[in-house]
């Protein structure tokens, strides 16, 4: 199986897509929501801190003596609260650990800019708000001058950040609750989409298995319903064509069977009268005698052809009966060869007393066809050997002729196949090997053509030994 | 000269077989339908009937059955198809042998002669003596008659020949192929259903209970034997 980056099942894919979209949506809304809420929270608490800072300074500043002394600075610092640094020139009043984050840069900025300054920084692993301002003295005439007193405060933003984090966590939790719901919905949706798909698949499978009446009832009016209708139409036309084809095939077979059957009566008459003619040919003038001989020969050939055609028709119609009995193979092979006067022209290798369940007549037909074929197309000596195995018996017929070309071997069992155009009028019906193959198959065995070690043609008949008598 | 009644509906084949079989020294009388054939046979009996199975009117099977109920004249059927249906039906109707169309007249002649030989001599008569008695069964090997409990049993030539062959060597097992050679004079491809059918008909005539035969016993997977009684 090849590796796929995407799950195979439609259901899995639908589910994955649904959950992914839900996750993305939830993540986006959590991100946007918590971000804006967090920002608002930070800004409001920052504003509050700044306001508190300047209010406290505003309350204490008018009471200060100017220029301030150290105690004045201390008072101011105490009023502003913890983590506060108050400076005036070289005087300095500071408390709390946080004030060390007040940098020179900040102090410089505050002293030059002359107004309230705030900055968020992270120090000691905590979010801090840094506030700074310089106190302005307003003269009675309204002019404002910097007093040189500078106040810095450090405020801890951790509570706010915790609040924001809690908010985020709550949002994610809420979003997570949606996911099982999304899976459930996806399963429902997949089910409603997949049921018609599965029905269609079952129908297609039944069609493929040959049940041409298989149909799916279309439901609804969506694309799947259209597809179902299309598949039904396809099945309809398939069924129609196959029925037509089967009818034509059956008709063709019946025609072949009928033709050969109808030929039997006139052929019987011909056979009868040829027998009469053959007894008197000696008394005829040469041309008439030759004509009579030709008529007799051709009648016999016609009889053979019609008999083979009828046999093929029976195979096609599936009505060829198999009559199995236990047969002693050596005797059967010898009987077959002796009946055709081949016994002394064939080199026979067969174990004695080998009993095999076969149809005696059909085995005779196969052997006779194979040996006749070896004599007709090969060269002597023709070897017939019987090799018993546990489950089957192999009967091999080998000749010493030129052998079979690959192109010929593929077609040698075809009906009316003639390997050599020049030999197209050989004495066989052209059905012998096809009938031999059908007979082998009827036994549950097989027949194969190949090349012998000698270079000649080799036919191997395989007959299973476990066929039970019918 | 052997007289043969040929029942065949096709006029040309009827004439062709008449011509051919006459040359083998038989006296041929022909009929074109089953009704004509039965009428002809009752008017003047023949030694043997060659019967086509496909006939207009009453078919060959029915003709064969009626011939059997009238007597023991041997019947050889001509089967047009050589299909099992015809052969089995014909044998069940009591035919002695069958030939598949288109048949060589020489083959038909050989079958005619073989069937007729069955009725004129018993195998190994000399060694067996004239009368053989097997429990209730008495076989006269010279007169070729069989009686059971003193009552004469009418057997066809083939049935008689089969009984004589089997009872000639009591308790010896005969294979179907052996019996086909001895009784029917068929070659190695003889149809064993001829034997099975004839055994059934023989049992129906000589056995007290044909379903549990005493005389002609089956040796499963091999063939038949006479006894042991």
TrEMBL record, chain A:
Record bears the keyword Transmembrane: yes
Molecular function (Gene Ontology), one example: protein histidine kinase activity
Primary residence: membrane
Parts of the chain that traverse the membrane: 172-197
Enzyme Commission code: 2.7.13.3
SMART domains reported for this sequence: HAMP, HATPase_c, HisKA
UniProt keyword list: Kinase, Membrane, Phosphoprotein, Transferase, Transmembrane, Transmembrane helix, Two-component regulatory system
InterPro entries for the chain: HAMP_dom (IPR003660), HATPase_C_sf (IPR036890), HATPase_dom (IPR003594), His_kinase_dom (IPR005467), HisK_dim/P_dom (IPR003661), HisK_dim/P_sf (IPR036097), Sig_transdc_His_kin-like_C (IPR004358), TCS_sensor_his_kinase (IPR050428)
Localization (cell): Cell membrane
HAMP domain sequence ranges: 191-243
Record domain Histidine kinase: where: 258-467
Catalyzed reaction equations: ATP + protein L-histidine = ADP + protein N-phospho-L-histidine
Keyword set includes Transferase: yes
PROSITE patterns given in the database record: HAMP (PS50885), HIS_KIN (PS50109)
Name of the protein in question: histidine kinase
Organism annotation: Kineosporia succinea
Automatic annotation (TrEMBL), chain B:
Transmembrane segments: none
Modified residues (4-aspartylphosphate): 52
Residues within the DNA-binding region(s): 129-228
MF terms (GO), sorted A to Z: DNA binding
Keyword Repeat: no
Domain Response regulatory stretches: 3-116
PANTHER family for the chain: DNA-BINDING DUAL MASTER TRANSCRIPTIONAL REGULATOR RPAA (PTHR48111:SF21), REGULATOR OF RPOS (PTHR48111)
Name this polypeptide is given: DNA-binding response OmpR family regulator
